[in-house]
## 1
Amino acid sequence: MILIVEGANNTGKTTLCEFLRKQSQFITIKDSSVNNRRLEFDKFAYVQGGIHTATSLMPLLNPAGRYVFDRFHLTEWVYGKERGYNADYVWDVDKLLANQEVWLLMMVSEMEPLVARCTPAESVMIGERYSRMMDAYDKSHMIKGRYDMKDAIDPVMKFLEL
């Protein structure tokens, strides 16, 4: 089983990934961090030969394993605009992931708690990022579910049938 957890900053993505790692033996894959049960990829090298580099990890994963990505292709689409490039290539990645039955879990929250947990610099962009993330979720072809950060664990476990 492969899961991707997406959402705006401070919506509980890492908290959910850590819960799945501890309670359901998922291997977490996040940014470029490596320790014990984490795999490494360069989060700033998303495109190599026209493909999202994290996607190149997919064939290396054990089909019987449990993996959870803390952010993936939708984040790249959201932040691509800010970084000054068009990241529409992620929709090809999305179709590839949908065909492999990778599941998307979108963490959501009301805007007020998100802004309160952000730095002043982040709070300026949070509304636009959140809106783009929801647009990306709606556009995705993956098996997907949307969960509120306040009460995500039980609904996610039911969705995953764990």
## 2
Amino acid sequence: MFYAAWNSVIPNRRRGIPRPLALRLPPREIGRVRVAYNFYVYMLTNRWKNVLYTDVTNDLLRRGCEHRNKVHDGFTKMYNCGRLVYFEWYQDIRQAIERETQIKKWSRAKKDALVASMNPEWRDLSEEWNVPEAEDCSTRI
């Protein structure tokens, strides 16, 4: 069961007995209000297109900025992966993580075909976006 907050309760109208706020409702639904989330599975490559990096994020613009400006040490910094060549949008993080895991298990040929289906020229999809400078990556509006 999902509880929206540890001590959030609303009164039961019949008996006046408190009950948990979001009892038996999915995590994204509280009462009749539905909250929309954005999650992205994305693939990056370097300028030689010999490396593919797959990951999931909730802010594609910020994450792209971090990769381009090599903010974090790791795979993308080591292999100069900064070109966004593929992405998919999801509202549920579980589906996004499941898809990321599925793609990571694929062969290189299958990943290449997936990228080519959306982006046949393998151009950087984030080129026309307004990507902030390195110091603005985490504080952008």
## 3
Amino acid sequence: MAVCTIIGTLIQVDGSTPAAGVSLVVKRVLKDGVLISTGNQSVLSDEDGLVSFTLPRDSVAYLSGPVEGFNVADGVAIAIPDAATANLEDLAPSVSVTVSGVTYGQLATLQTAFDALVAGAPGALDTLNELAAALNDDANLAATLTLSITNEATARASADTTLQTNITNEATARASGDAAALASANGYTDAELATLDLSPYQTRAEKNQADGYAGLDGSGLIPDNRIPASIARDSEVTSAIELVQDAIAAIPASSLSYLVYTALLNQTGTDAPVATVLENTLGGTPVWSRSMQGVYVLTLAGAFTVGKTAVFVTPTRAGATTAAHIIEAMSNVSADSLTIVTSRQDGTNGTSGELDSLLTNVSIKIEVYS
């Protein structure tokens, strides 16, 4: 079997080189979904932190460390390329080992994605939930702000127009010297005009100026260059959500607590059972066969773990008789196969025996725990 030589340096998170003798352990190796090695291969780093070891090409290996090491009980999965050599630092997810409180290795792919997403944001704004709360949980914040600013600008423009009209009328009345016309046009006397507070209003000269108000574009909207850069656009929020979704999707299926096979079985005569598979995460295609009358075997190399495989089948009963159809899982589960038996037990005289043709849409569920 062709092998790939893995070479790399175990590096502390702070960038320095670890002491000699840091141990990596290859716990198990799978190729094409088949378990090909379960022995623990221990690799020690030299005085410069270098490690070198070989594994089958195009396989998946599970690496672990000492008791204080990996935070994944069964090891961290790395994909071994179909190449003569590979750098440990290039494999994903990257290796990380903690010894005596010191962490060695590269940042994990998922952690790198989250760090890039946070990008130094303050603690009160480094999660999507905190960002959403800061934006009042408004999915259409840009439109809300635009509408609010537009309404404010419209109100200010209307007040400005009214004020300008009053000033024009006042100037006309003053020019004619007609006090009666002045009073009629504005409703103010000279004394009242002198004390009128105009501070709540802004003039047209303050449009698009500092401490003024923002003008609208040809579509009646506030231009982007008038919106503060600190306000995130909808597209930026969407990009952040997509980044998190991609990071979650990158979590390997091997990190789940167990693998499962669920199917509906039918069997007649001396034929092998026919399975309608509802779910299969065993890493390959199991094959059903008939061993003898009423005895059926499910085979998939390396798919089952002795002592950690649970089998659930649905018992059935004949409709018009007193006999029970009993389906049971045998206890002789091996790494490559497991067996179920169908029998008919007469409720009157206690006779029993293995029989064929008792599987009709019978459900079976197999859970293989790591």
